[in-house]
Amino acid sequence: MGLMQDNLLDNARRMTALAEDAGFGEAFERAAALMISSLQQGGTLIACGNGGSMTNAQHFAEELTGRFRGSRPPLRAIAISDPSHITCVANDYGYEFVFSKFVEAFAKPGDVLLALSTSGKSPNVLRAAEAMKAAGGNVVASSGTADTALAAIADVSFAIGASRWADRIQESELVVIHSLMQAIEDGFGYSAE
User: Fold this and answer.
1) Residue from 75, 52, 77, 134 nearest 100 by CA
2) Global pTM?
3) Fold of the domain built from segment(s) 3-187
4) H helices then E strands: how many in the chain?
5) Which residues, in sequence order, are bridge partners of residue 156?
6) Is 45 helix (H, G, I), strand (E, B) or coil?
7) In what order do the strands lie in the sheet with 156-159?
8) Residue 113 DSSP symbol
9) Which of 127, 151, 154, 192 is least enclosed, having the fewest CB within 10 Å?
10) Which of 68, 72, 20 is nearest to 177 (CA)?
11) Average pLDDT per run of 10 along the chain, which is 193 residues long?
12) Cα 190 vs. chain centroid, distance in angstroms?
């Protein structure tokens, strides 16, 4: 079997395991409800992560402010990915503060942070989660395993499944993000065109 086939089968096994995990499904429903409620009350969804998880955070935000399945009004979402903010804070305070300083500046009660960390222990993501809780918001976390420092802070946590390769977790993370976007649109009654 070739490399591509191996990767596809590995992902299929991971997706099947998540689909059959009742606890994962319940966590998804709670996360979607938190996000829909926040948006309905004028809140903002803020997303953060490092590396591939940052690109997933950006994808989450841009599809909500732009277009996912069809035309609809934009929804309030932003990823913490501005290079000038990140380099300023990293230089002046340290890299572990690049997300939390943004949350401290913008988050308000009722907002939701989508915190993405394949390990569940990235210091900058943990600080962002703590800052969101201090601001009176909620945290939805995604990581590879269930028993992480990030999961302990979060209101809702997804354990996507351990892997020795972070990209496997990020691939599964993207399916969760797309599903959250669909649930949000469905919650507002927006349908695909």
Assistant:
1) 134
2) 0.93
3) Rossmann fold (3.40.50)
4) 8, 5
5) 140
6) strand
7) 77-79, 45-48, 112-116, 138-143, 156-159
8) E
9) 192
10) 68
11) 84 82 91 98 97 94 93 96 98 98 98 94 97 98 88 92 68 89 94 69
12) 21
